[in-house]
């Protein structure tokens, strides 16, 4: 049984507001989202003149090929040389590929005792159902140790490039971030609501991928990338202040330090015992269980943490120059 | 297995681990840690060198993990590897020590610990390149070396270093890409990544003659990749900026360690992966020979034209890398030994020149212009002596290391005469004269007295060794290393020869 409602109640009702939003008469975000009105762009004459002067100088000294004959020759040579060397490289590689053993043939040199042993004995020797994980974290763990150090050193290099250590003043990281995102909408409720739902799911999925690295496709590198993406989403929705409550540069530093230290020490132990033909004493467990395959699970977690931190720190550094 | 045989494993892991620890340490403690760790690794490598030299085991493999070689990773050590590790540690230690004061001026204080992360990881990666017996491990550590080198260039932040780092990164990644493609194709042809197994398959393939064309292309890709990364003559455009504008320790490390690590990997590929007989018979060495000769001449000519002293020293590197590849190009064992000796001689001398050069420019109000250096040898006597010794060594004056390597190159060209003999000797002579022109004119310039009035006006000052004890100590140690290489070259050559025999 329906009951008649007053006009005032109808105006406040869901249906009317939906209709108004579709017709564009009302903006539901108005008053909820902090957004700065953009002023009309007024070019700074002084800066314009300076840029123009720079540009004129470049044109006069280099780009104006009528008066700079040697640059004209150089540009022509540069274009021709670039095309010729690229085409030559492509041709050489195509020739090489055409002579290589065909893909998928049974007597390919790659199908030898090395890959056969990985496939046949992999599960028994490493305890990992996923052969790839067994290979990268047990058979060839030294390479993977190097690989996680590549990530670590890449983060350090980006830190050198982008970290802004000035704490105060016009050029501090805070002030620059504020300037950069001045016109960006803050507290965007659509993004926040969706992140509220998605962030836990993404992180849990990432953890699942990491923890099941030795059982199913995935592992530290892919799971870490998923968690990193989740953190980036969270940062975009809620800003640096909120994420700073649980993830700061200090957290990042200590997490990646702890993860890499554990990796280094655990693998040193394993290498040392292996080289001297000693029993490592680490149980492999039943293949297929979550807690199995010896060191692979903890190492996957370490790699995952390093990758997640690296992904997030790249984004945060590009955004603010410190976090 | 004797306990000393753990040294390669310990030194790689220790260097990497100290890099990881440095990330949470303040800069000052990280610097001390770097010094201690590098010294420890150097001492351990010396121990291993002595042990291997006295015993007759040749070289041995060390299993990295519970699985034997073709399945797991392994590293392999012999006298040459141990000697290289020791040498790298010495140069690393001295280079970092020599640029100590300069780093405080040029690097933000809060980023000092990152510098030591880079140097420690770089040392670990170089040691791994020296000891590895697996092509893929080599590639992974080549990556670490490349990224660390970019970081070392741009940690002094100004426009020139960032431009230099970008150029370095593009060229170096091109080199890495070619190397990776080469490794992939070689894996496809042989089915192995372990160097010794690869060589077996390569020998079979060569005898059967089935895959000769892709094999040639593969070797070419790997050689060109490493040549780009180590700045062989036509690919050297990135070098002067990268060495010339980075902070002085970085310049010394890059010129004397990073490029040498790559070249050492190339020697390893020649001997242990492909087999030197096949390499010597292929035409790839002819190309390396020609490029090497080109580098020797054009590098020196560019250096003569250069008015900026740091860039002049950098261009000299192009010429010296040319010498090394020219030695490869001779295609004989004698040429190879000469090249390896020149790796040592150049590394010791070039880092000395960079470190001494910075002392000279500092007392000339920071001006790097050649003309402002007048009388700089009197203003900073230690740096002046260091620069003079480095120059004499590069030109090839007896009792310094450069002389021995030039003698060896000439000998190598004459002992096994081929069409390469006359070009080698002629270009060697021309290059020596060109070297003498630009180095000796600088030495004359720094020892030409400048009037006190001009010094006053330009803001030059004098500094004695007592005010810069660590710097003076570094210069003296560099000179000592140079003299050791120059005077006691015979045992070092024996080690290189023995090491090359164990390589194959």
Radius of gyration of chain A: 29 Å
Radius of gyration of chain B: 22 Å
Number of strand segments of chain B: 2
Shape of chain A: extended
Helix content of chain B: over 70%
Low-confidence stretches of chain A: none
Q: Tell me which protein chains meet in the greatest interface and how many residues each side has.
A: A-B, 56 and 61 residues
| Distance linking N and C termini of chain B | 22 Å
Overall pLDDT confidence of chain A? 85
Computed structural class of chain A: mainly alpha
Tally the structural domains of chain A: 2
Derived from helix and strand composition plus strand pairing, the structural class of chain B reads: mainly alpha
Total count of helical runs of at least 4 residues of chain B: 22
What keywords describe this structure?
heterodimer; A: mainly alpha; 2 domains; extended; B: 504 residues; mainly alpha; two-stranded antiparallel ribbon; 22 helices; 2 strands; globular
How would you sum up this structure, described in words?
The complex is a heterodimer of chains A (323) and B (504). Chain A folds into 2 domains: 46-98, no CATH class; 114-164 and 179-319, no CATH class. Chain A contains 12 helices and no strands. Chain A has helices at 7-12, 14-23, 45-63, 69-99, 113-126, 131-139, 141-162, 173-180, 189-211, 220-243, 249-275, 296-319. The longest helix of chain A is centred in the first third of the chain and has 31 residues, at 69-99. By secondary structure, chain B is mainly alpha-helical. Chain B has a domain at 283-504. Helix content of chain B is 77%, strand content 2%. Chain B has a two-stranded antiparallel ribbon with strand order 1-2. In chain B, strand 1 and strand 2 form a beta hairpin. The model of chain B has no long low-confidence stretch (mean pLDDT 90). Chains A and B meet through helix 4, helix 5, helix 7 and helix 11 of A and helix 1, strand 1, helix 5, helix 6 and helix 7 of B.
């Amino acid at each position: 049984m329906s009951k008649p409602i007053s006009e005032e109640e109808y105006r406040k009702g869901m249906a009317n507001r939906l209709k108004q939003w579709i017709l564009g008469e009302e903006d539901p975000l108005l008053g909820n989202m902090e957004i700065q009105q953009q002023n009309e762009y007024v070019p700074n004459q002084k800066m314009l003149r300076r840029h123009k002067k720079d540009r004129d100088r470049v044109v006069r000294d280099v780009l104006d090929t009528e008066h700079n004959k040697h640059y004209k020759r150089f540009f022509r040579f540069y274009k021709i040389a670039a095309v010729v060397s690229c085409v030559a490289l492509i041709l050489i590689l195509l020739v090489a590929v055409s002579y290589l053993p065909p893909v998928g043939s049974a007597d390919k040199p790659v199908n030898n005792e090395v890959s056969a042993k990985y496939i046949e004995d992999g599960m028994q020797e490493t305890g990992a159902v996923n052969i790839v994980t067994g290979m990268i974290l047990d058979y060839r763990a030294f390479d993977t140790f190097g690989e996680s150090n590549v990530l670590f050193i890449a983060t350090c290099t980006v830190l050198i490039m982008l970290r802004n250590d000035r704490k105060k003043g016009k050029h501090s990281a805070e002030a620059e971030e504020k300037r950069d995102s001045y016109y960006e909408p803050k507290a965007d409720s659509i993004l926040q609501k969706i992140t509220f739902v998605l962030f836990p799911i993404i992180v849990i999925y990432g953890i699942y991928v990491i923890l099941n690295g030795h059982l199913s496709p995935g592992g530290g590198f892919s799971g870490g990338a998923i968690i990193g993406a989740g953190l980036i989403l969270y940062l975009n929705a809620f800003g640096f202040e909120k994420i700073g409550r649980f993830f700061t540069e200090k957290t990042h530093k200590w997490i990646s330090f702890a993860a890499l230290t554990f990796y280094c020490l655990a693998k040193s132990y394993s290498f040392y015992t292996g080289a001297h033909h000693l029993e490592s004493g680490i149980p492999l467990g039943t293949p297929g269980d979550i807690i199995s395959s010896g060191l692979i699970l903890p190492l996957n977690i370490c790699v995952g943490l390093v990758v997640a931190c690296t992904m997030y720190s790249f984004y945060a550094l590009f955004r603010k120059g410190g976090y | 297995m004797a306990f000393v045989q753990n040294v390669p494993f310990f030194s790689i892991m220790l260097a990497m681990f100290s890099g990881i620890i440095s990330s949470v340490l303040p800069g000052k403690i990280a610097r001390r840690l770097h010094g201690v760790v590098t010294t420890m690794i150097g001492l351990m490598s010396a121990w291993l060198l002595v042990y291997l030299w006295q015993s007759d085991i040749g070289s041995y493999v060390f299993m990295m993990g519970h699985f034997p070689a073709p399945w797991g990773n392994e590293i392999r050590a012999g006298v040459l590897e141990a000697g290289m590790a020791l040498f790298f540690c010495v140069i690393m230690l001295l280079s970092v020590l020599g640029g100590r004061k300069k780093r405080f001026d040029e690097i933000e204080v809060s980023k000092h610990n990152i510098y030591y992360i880079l140097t420690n990881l770089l040392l670990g990666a170089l040691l791994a390149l020296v000891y590895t017996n697996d092509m893929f491990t080599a590639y992974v550590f080549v990556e670490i070396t490349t990224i660390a080198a970019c970081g070392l260039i741009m940690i002094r932040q100004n426009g020139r270093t960032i431009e230099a780092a970008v150029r370095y990164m593009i060229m170096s990644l091109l080199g890495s890409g070619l190397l990776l493609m080469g490794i992939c194709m070689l894996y496809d042809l042989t089915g192995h990544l372990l160097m010794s197994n690869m060589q077996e398959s390569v020998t079979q393939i060569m005898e059967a003659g089935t895959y000769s064309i892709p094999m040639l292309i593969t070797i070419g890709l790997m050689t060109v990749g490493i040549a780009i990364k180590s700045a062989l003559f036509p690919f050297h455009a990135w070098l002067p900026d990268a060495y010339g504008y980075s902070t002085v320790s970085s310049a010394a490390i890059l010129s004397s360690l990073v490029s040498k690590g790559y070249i050492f990997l190339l020697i390893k590929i020649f001997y242990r992966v492909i087999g030197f007989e096949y390499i010597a018979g292929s035409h790839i060495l002819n190309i390396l020979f020609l490029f090497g000769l080109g580098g020797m001449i054009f590098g020196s000519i560019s250096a003569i034209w250069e008015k900026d002293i740091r860039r002049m020293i950098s261009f000299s590197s192009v010429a010296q890398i040319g010498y090394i590849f020219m030695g490869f190009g001779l295609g004989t064992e004698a040429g190879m030994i000469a090249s390896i000796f020149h790796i040592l001689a150049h590394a010791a001398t070039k880092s000395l020149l960079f470190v001494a050069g910075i002392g000279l420019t500092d007392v000339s109000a920071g001006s790097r212009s050649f003309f402002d250096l007048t009388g700089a040898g009197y203003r900073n006597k230690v740096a002046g002596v260091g620069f003079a010794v480095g120059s004499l060594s590069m030109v090839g004056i007896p009792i310094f290391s450069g002389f021995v390597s030039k003698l060896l190159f000439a000998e190598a060209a004459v002992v096994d005469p081929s069409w390469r003999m006359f070009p080698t000797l002629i270009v060697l002579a021309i290059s020596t004269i060109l070297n003498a022109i630009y180095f000796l004119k600088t030495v004359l310039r720094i020892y030409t007295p400048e009037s006190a009035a001009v010094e006053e006006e330009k803001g030059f000052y004098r500094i004695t060794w007592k005010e810069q004890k660590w710097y003076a100590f570094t210069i003296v140690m560099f000179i000592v290393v140079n003299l050791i290489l120059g005077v006691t070259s015979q045992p070092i050559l024996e080690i290189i020869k023995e090491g090359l025999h164990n390589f194959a």
